[in-house]
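haha ok so turns out i had the wrong file open the whole time. this is the CORRECT one, sorry everyone. sequence first:
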Amino acid sequence: MWHQSTSIHTTLIWRLYALMNTLLFGSSNKGKVAEVSKVAGALGVTIVGLDSCSGPELGAPPVVVEGLPTYEANAAHKALSYARWARRPCLGDDTGLELDVLGGLPGLYSHRFGLPRVAALLGLSAQTAARFVCCISYAEPSGRLVSVTRALEGRLRRPSESEISELADDPLPYARLFTPVGETRPLRELLSRDGFLSHRGMALSGLLRVLFG
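then structure:
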């Protein structure tokens, strides 16, 4: 009975974070945290990044390797790892760029492929149908998981040689080359537009509606 009561009490504490509409996002990337914070704020939810977690009892955040076979598996693994480290509910995400001409590659391996390799594989193709896919997972330290996946359809143009060099250290290199369906400007320019939802924004919006109704 003691163990059951303790478990119920702990779960209520975790749910309290959600009831307070404050969620931890498993990233220290300020640009990514800013993007999800904007989307969540419109729905009355506050997002904080890993940098907000401190205290000697926590130690450094774990290093989470995204080596699983699906977006959902990677997002859930990240969310659960950080949730158990921080001892509170957490969101985790995994994203990928899928190119039709490459049969869906680089997909899960977008970061590891790198822009130069993608450009080389595109060859002489000026542009190709593509989509950004994102899965965002909510996890509680107990192991409870909720995941939502969304895709943003569009077209990716082949970068010039000068752009490949310019974007070498850019954390979002494809955002400058990808134009969503129905838009005339690249994704990078749309991210700051009020009301626009990227693949990550759509996944987060869908997840928060599931969690908070």
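The first strand starts at residue 22 and ends at 25.
again sry for the mixup
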